[in-house]
Design goal:
By secondary structure, this protein is mainly alpha-helical. The protein has helices at about 5-30, 40-55, 65-80, 90-100, 105-110, 110-125. The protein is globular. Bound molecules: zinc ion (3 copies). Its EC number is 2.3.1.48.
């Protein structure tokens, strides 16, 4: 493989990853506010489970829970862009307070954080919590080919 091919591949990888980060953040932002137990968003159930886990997780404080680590990385990503005074996203306001305190440090670690967030998104996509039936009905929205 030539290095030119490699860099093209990396670029499209990056775009896809950024897209899945955005998608992941969007479902997270939805899930923390969603009160619908039968919500038809495919990601919603999973996100809700993860958020519920993190709210009650005891290992979170010592930051040695892999599930929480991933979710916190996503919350950080959200919090960095978020300027809402009364944001309802869990942990958003406390993360923002921390970001303020460690502003210089965070700026230095910006690249690292992005990489961590990407890993988190990828891990979350493959994440299965305690459920045995991981059969999810993901509805694919396909462009209909009906041109009569
Ligand atoms: Zn929902
Ligand atoms: Zn946890
Ligand atoms: Zn927020």
């Amino acid at each position: 493989m030539t290095s030119a091919e490699q860099s093209v591949e990396q670029e499209s990888n990056l775009a896809t990853r950024n897209e899945s980060i955005q998608r992941c953040i969007a479902s997270l932002e939805h899930a923390v506010q969603c009160k619908e137990p039968e919500c038809d968003r495919a990601e919603c159930h999973k996100m809700k489970r993860v958020v519920t886990h993190t709210r009650g997780c005891r290992k979170r404080q010592e930051s040695n829970c892999p599930v929480c680590k991933q979710l916190i990385a996503l919350f950080c990503y959200h919090a960095k862009e978020c300027h809402l005074e009364q944001c309802r996203v869990t942990f958003c306001q406390s993360i923002r307070r921390k970001l303020e305190e460690h502003k210089r440090l965070v700026e230095l670690q910006d690249d690292l954080t992005t990489i961590e967030v990407m890993e988190a998104v990828i891990n979350l996509e493959n994440l299965t919590l305690e459920d045995g039936s991981s059969q999810e009905d993901v509805e694919m929205v396909e462009p209909s080919t009906s041109c009569s």
